[in-house]
Amino acid sequence: MTNSLLNLQSTSLSDERVLCAIELIWKEAAILDAKDYPAWEELFTDEAYYVVPIDPDTEDFAASLNMIYDDKRMRHLRVERMMQGYAPSAVAAARTARVVSTFVVKSVSDDEVIIRSTQVLTAFKRNSHQTLGAELTHTIALSDDGGRIAQKVARLINSEDAVSAAGFLI
């Protein structure tokens, strides 16, 4: 690692704004593992997008094919499906455990923190385990009340391969 990267990371990780963002990301993981989907919805700003792209390198999500590209309305519909019990993803929903780590601060301002992390998600459903790895990029909008997710991008490490239906949110 170069000295400038080490300096950015050590300075950024001690920044209160960055700590607020990391705590929110961990809170999101815990809420998803608890299947508290209404609380998960509340973590997002009204304008936020939740994206799981197929192309691991794309930045133009609106013009790319995505597994998930949800605005507020679509997130709400997804949560309703997860909770109503009629959708295959909701019937005997998978139990999950997430580990989110390797935080790398991309930018920090008084209004926003952009932070990249890695996630390992283990799911158990119907006597079978599934493990997914992803690189997460969270854009956290900061306010006096703390932070909310302005954008979440989950880049699955196997996004270009066939990904089986998931009974959980990534």
TrEMBL record:
SUPFAM superfamilies: NTF2-like
InterPro entries named in the record: NTF2-like_dom_sf, Rng_hydr_dOase-bsu
Swiss-Prot/TrEMBL keywords: Oxidoreductase
Protein name: Aromatic-ring-hydroxylating dioxygenase subunit beta
The keyword Oxidoreductase belongs to this UniProt entry's keyword annotation: yes
Keyword Transmembrane helix carried by entry: no
GO BP term, example: 3-phenylpropionate catabolic process
One Pfam family named in its UniProt record: Ring_hydroxyl_B
Family: Belongs to the bacterial ring-hydroxylating dioxygenase beta subunit family.
Transmembrane feature ranges: none
A GO term, aspect molecular function: oxidoreductase activity
Domain of life: Bacteria
